[in-house]
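User: I'm writing a tutorial on reading structure tokens. Could you give me a worked example: one chain, its sequence, then its tokens, then a sentence or two explaining what the tokens reveal?
Assistant: Sure. Here is the example chain.
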Amino acid sequence: MTTSPGRRSSTFTRLLRHGFTDPSAAEQLLDLDALASVRSDPVLLEALGATADPDLALRGLVRVVEAGEESERQVLLDTLVTAKPLRDRLLGVLGASEALGDHLARHPRDWRALVTYESADLHPGVAEFEQGLADAVDPDSLRVAYRRCLLTLAARDVCGTTGLAQTAAELADLATATLRAALAIARTAAPEDAAQCRLAVVAMGKCGGRELNYVSDVDVIFVGEAHDGVDETKAMQAATRLAAHMMRICSETTVEGTIWEVDANLRPEGRNGPLVRTLSSHLAYYQRWAKTWEFQALLKARAVAGDPELGAEYVEAVSPLVWGAADRENFVPDVQKMRRRVVDNIPADRIERELKLGPGGLRDVEFAVQLLQLVHGRSDASLHSGSTLEALRALADGGYVGRADAAQLDEAYRFLRAMEHRIQLHRLRRTHLVPEDEADLRRLGRSLGMRTDPVAELNKAWKRHASVVRRLHEKIFYRPLLDAVAQLAPGESRLSPKAAAIRLEALGYADPAAALRHLEALSSGVTRKAAIQRTLLPVLLGWFADSADPDAGLLGFRKVSDALGKTPWYLRLLRDEGAAAENLARVLSAGRLAPDLLMRAPEAVAILGDPEGLRPRTREHLEQEVLAAVGRAGDAESAVAVVRGVRRRELFRTTAADLIGSYGTEDSPAEQDHGALVDRVGSAVTDLNAATIAGALRAAVRERWGDTLPTRFAVIGMGRFGGHELSYGSDADVLFVHRPREGVSDEEAGRAANAVVGEMRRLLQLPTADPPLLIDADLRPEGRTGPMVRTLKSYEAYYRRWSLVWESQALLRAEHMAGDEELGRAFVELVDPLRYPMEGLGEDAVREIRRLKARMESERMPRGADPTLHAKLGRGGLSDVEWTVQLMQMRHGWAEPGLRTTRTREALAAACAAGLIPAEDAQTLDEAWVLAARVRNAVMLVRGRPGDTFPSDARELAAVGRYLGYEPGHVGDMLDDYRRITRRARAVVEERFYGAAG
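And here are its predicted structure tokens:
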């Protein structure tokens, strides 16, 4: 076929028009002698152009023709141009599957399997496939026969003769016939083993559900019994040899390739358990040890090979256990774990191409359907199906899933599975990754009927269906709950109240009746508000269910919605600001403190929708706002009421940021640096309390003296306040210092200073809706018996003459917080020589500090408290770490500037940098201190009141665990980890504080 130079032949143009991407190569193939009799037949070119990959189909055809004998070639070519069914089937397979083209090239007579077009051929079952494999007597012949059967199955698929569900069912039936053939070969090879035992093969997973892929592990479980008169141990050994041989026959690679892996890891105890068990052994395991996911897997169990009676007995025996799984004690936390998408082990560069495990993938649909089956299947046998699509249809028919949602999921699932089938069919490899190569994407799109712009059309359709799954896979749990309390059109299916309660229980709601009342109150009616709530609630219910207390989350949401329901911006914020609704759900369901703060001023919910809203305000910003508010107020009480309102709002901001950072959201993972979380809370609460005290001070002065107090006055932060380490429930430890102004007597200045202190404390503790700020001045000279406020000179005289070592230690935390800055700096300069004594502490002082610490441990621990779990005073807790660090500060602060800080972690890091403590010991102390601080924060967040020990209530304990990063059902691990970490810290304390090191 020659043309003039520079001109393209008409054949080249026709090939381009028919979808060939390499017309030059195709022309050369058509010029081969092997195709001489058909190269000009227009029917052939038309049929090639209809395939997924015309270039691949033509190359495959040439290989098949050239591989056949001379007489066979002409028969094939004549049949090809005269019989449309063969032409469509053969070329369709060759254009979609390079692997099946390889098979036909090795076994060129197998094309004849595609000629027959009888009704049995159109819809074969296990019996027909068994007939197709009947001549297989060894692994190689079984592989050839299997591929021949697969060839006919794939031909029906690519030609559209069978749909997705029928293709998947046929693949499972072919697998069933193959397992039977492999077992027969194994039994023939070891007749003495076969004579000793009964062996049943139970299919699991997609094979069990009759929804298999082209290339997938075939999951199985083996059940064995001894024949009469045979010792059970010997029978099980024989059955194990038969089962292992059967697996090798299917799984091993020979000259004819492999079939697929047979995977028995779903058996009791997984790969650590025996390959074959008796029926009684299986049941004993399931009744005592099995986890919820194992019953989920058994949902698809189906006897497929070996002893049919034994297989049927097994399926019948485990069925009640499967459908009773929702009654198990740990079902709710197990469901919460299973509902979380497991994508951590998918490489980042693959997650966007994952059809199965990625967001909006096949696993999302399958898990959602299976979990709904487990929840409702115990009372509705119509849901007892192993097939995802059949079960989805049954869930819709029963009102357990909305019909529109079910239809969308059905369509998306079929499309994604069809993509998966075509991807695997190409090379018959097990993969769930969408290819990146343009040619592969083009072939894939064309195989699904996309011809105009296959790559663009494929990507668009794939993203659309994945988006549907991503949007619906969680909502299908919750939308029917709203329908259960809504007015539906006649004939619409809905969840019964009982079924709705069952589902809410399974999702972790302790009071489903109350939950349904809340849903009805929120979503009933025809108002725009109710319509928006019906859109929001399915998503919110999922986030609530993901927490330790879903009931509290839903109740809190109803309260906030009732308070703000008439505010136009509230529901619009939740609907339109992506993060706001999820942030609100996390905050409302994580404990009592944050919702209590929010309910006192629900408009603070706006913070959750502002990208900068969770960032803590600086002290300067807070003081500016507070002092401006005091300046506008009419009197001291109303001024401090505004100040305390600002404090409540900012406490809510801090708690919300802490909870969201600890829990994480769908778009933002949980903060991994727990020390940073603790530091942020400590700094934010400290700055907030300092600004609040500054506001109260200004209000108290302004009420009685106007702008100027007769004495300069400063508030010195002590303890955790001075160390910027306040937790949510901490008091503010302070010292008050004043210095009379020029011309003012000491008596007048003292009266004014004491009056200001009294008024400040009164104002900050007035009974209002806002949380009080308790000021504690017990660390002052002479303690509770000493004067509440002193002049700077009085402090100087006292510390010079009477100061005890514990007071010097307490002054390590002293820092100016409010009032006169110059006076505050003077006080800090005054105490520096006390807290960082030149040449360090003497041995007598060190012994005194150790004695005080030992006494505190024995006297201050609350009666009955577990010293291994007390965050403040317990073994390796806050006190242990802080006293160890403070001893280093007092011994070496005079020489090491880095130790001159009020902050524990900062001082510990400086001590490590100075070589005063090994890095490993410093890390151990830091980890324990951060954990203990987080426990105290968690207890306050969860219970709404401070505490130093883990809660005894199970739900509160679980909520503390979730805040600390533990999955549901792992509070035991949390307590074990706490004891382990603090035990290691205590060992360091014994050496560094009580020992000679230092």
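What the tokens reveal: The radius of gyration is 38 Å. The chain has a mean pLDDT of 91.
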